[in-house]
Amino acid sequence: MIGNAGDAVAPSIDGVAAESSAGxxxxxxxxxxxxxxxxxxxxxxxxxPDGDACPFCRAPELDDEQALIxxxxxxxxxxxxxxxxxxxxxxxCPYRHIATYDEASPQEVAEIGELTQTxxxxxxxxSGCHGFNIGMNQGRIAxxxxxxxxxxxxxxxxxxxxxxxxxxxxTKAVPRLLGEVRDEIARAWPAGSPE
Length: 195
Prior knowledge:
CATH topology of the domain at 46-162 and 173-188: HIT family, subunit A
CATH class of the domain at 46-162 and 173-188: Alpha Beta
CATH superfamily of the domain at 46-162 and 173-188: HIT-like
Number of strands: 7
CATH architecture of the domain at 46-162 and 173-188: 2-Layer Sandwich
Protein name: ATP adenylyltransferase
Structural class: alpha+beta
Radius of gyration: 19 Å
Keywords: Nucleotide-binding, Nucleotidyltransferase, Transferase
Enzyme class: transferase
Domain HIT: 55-164
Organism: Microcella alkalica
Strand order of the largest sheet: 3-4-5-7-6
Order of helices and strands: EEHHHEEEHEEHH
């Protein structure tokens, strides 16, 4: 629910009025609020929901649907980002727990590249995206949320996916549920690519 601290009339959802924060004991500010209680585990435990366990080492041990994995290769795999920048935001990760690209073997580098190319093709066919942001943040100082395990971002982009919401409301709206997106991408992933 989005609401201004100074709203006089609380907005409603399905006819039920949302509680306005205007009367709360706090100093009003200019921020809008998008309530996302599902992120609490992330906030309470840092970037790693299972304490010290690496989520990219743990994911392959789980069921594909539970881990949001869309494809598994020999040395690397592809999963949805749990906190996406856009619908269909994928991560390509080696199975090995390595921190930087220069630690990857030639086989891992090749498969990360192959999986990235396949991800681009699948996202284009399933979502009709117009372009991509692809990249790796190496180390926490460079913006890596999980710096200890190498991962490449594949973020689909559309001509009209930018709007005022992130700038004015400091909020990113993601229009599709992760499970739906995972199922669609997994179904469209070519069989035996790479195995």
